[in-house]
Each structure stands twice: as C-alpha cells, then as structure tokens.
Amino acid sequence: DAGVIQSPRHEVTEMGQEVTLRCKPISGHDYLFWYRQTMMRGLELLIYFNNNVPIDDSGMPEDRFSAKMPNASFSTLKIQPSEPRDSAVYFCASSPQGKSNQPQHFGDGTRLSIL
Amino acid sequence: AQSVTQLDSQVPVFEEAPVELRCNYSSSVSVYLFWYVQYPNQGLQLLLKYLSGSTLVKGINGFEAEFNKSQTSFHLRKPSVHISDTAEYFCAVSEPTGNQFYFGTGTSLTVIP
What we know:
The complex is a heterodimer of chains A (115) and B (113). Chain A is mostly beta strands and 115 residues long. Helix content of chain A is 0%, strand content 54%. In chain A, the strands form 2 sheets. In chain A, strands 2, 4, 5, 6, 9, 10 and 11 form a 7-stranded mixed sheet that branches. A 4-stranded antiparallel sheet of chain A has the order 1-3-8-7, with no helix packed on it. Chain A is globular, with a radius of gyration of 13 Å. In chain B, 0% of the residues lie in helices and 50% in strands. Chain B has strands spanning 4-5, 10-14, 19-21, 24-25, 32-38, 44-50, 56-58, 64-68, 73-78, 87-94, 102-103, 107-112. In chain B, strands 2, 5, 6, 10, 11 and 12 form a 6-stranded mixed sheet that branches. In chain B, strands 3-9-8-7 form a 4-stranded antiparallel sheet, with no helix packed on it. A two-stranded antiparallel sheet of chain B has the order 1-4. In chain B, strand 8 and strand 9 form a beta hairpin. Chain B is globular, with a radius of gyration of 13 Å. The model of chain B has no long low-confidence stretch (mean pLDDT 92). The interface between A and B is medium-sized, with 23 and 24 residues.
C-alpha cells in the first residue's frame, strides 16, 4: 500500500510569497494531521481533520496559516504571506478511525526554507 | 494534556553496545504509548506500541520497551546497536478519550563505529 504522500519534498521561496504544501493520506484513513518540526520547538501539531472536517486548529500559529481538506484523499497547508520564521519541516500524517490506539502514519515531509 | 519528557537530547553509543533511551510522561491515567524512529530526511516510522497487557513490548529492528505505570515511564532499549540505528527517536503518548498524540522532543542516537 502507498503511504502518506507529501509534495513538494523541498520548497525554497522568498519571504512574502504564498506557499502551498500538499498531502495525500493513506486510502481509508479518516484522520489527517499536519505537524511542523523545528530544532527549537520539536514536533508541533498544527491542525487535524476528521472525515475532511477540521477538528482542532489551535496549533496553527497565526492567520497566515490555513489548511483545507476538500476530499478524503487530499489536503493542503497554505502560508500567505510566508516569513523566514516559517522555515521548518512540515509533516502530514494519517490514521485509521482516529482512535488513539491506532498509530499515525507519517509522510516524508516538506522541507520549507523561506529566504 | 499530556507532557512527554525525553531527558536525553543526544545519546552517543559504540557499535554493538546496549542502549536505553528514556521517556517519561506526565499523567497517571490510562495511556497508550509509542516509540517512533526518524531517519534523516524521512518521516517518522512506528517502532513499537504499548496498548495493554504485557509491560514488555517488542518492536522492529530488535528494539523493545518496558511500560512502568508507577514511574510513568516507557524506556526504549536495544541490547546491541548497529550503525544503521543512528537516527532520531521520539516517544509519544495518547489517551483513550482523545485523538491527539503528544510527542517528546526526541533523542538523537548516534552509533559510533
């Protein structure tokens, strides 16, 4: 089975530009999670969805960040406008049924650099 | 919310030596426990999990972990490490009533030839 697929793997852009990160969860998984990983803060949960509906977005740092899940097989995380402090690795993860005893399956991440 | 502590940010160890990576969590309520491994430029992969039953859990790549409820710990061990075990290791906790995972800050394991 294909795992969680993220694109692009790397993104380098100038501050002020719009950035869109993409994620395709594992087929049949009802929950989708977006994380951000930095040296300073470690792994932070930004937002998660259940059946395409955002459940908890309290981790989204500010209004410049937005996430959507238009269907069960696709989600986006958008930053507009981007700033250098947004530089990080962004991970998408999915889990079946979203029950807390089910492990989350992670994509390989998008390494984002804002110049 | 749970708090997960991985006291050792970096652990260097010689090849074929044993290793223990420590993980403590904050709450004494019923929890599920996980260890993940992250190789360079990759996402997190599940090593092992504890849901219930035997407190000694065996995972992939020869790793095992022991759940200790009284000490709220879930330490990861391997009796003999290989160069290929060099990676970042994350402990994670979830609660039966929730959907979120709470991750520790990670331990960087470096195996020295």
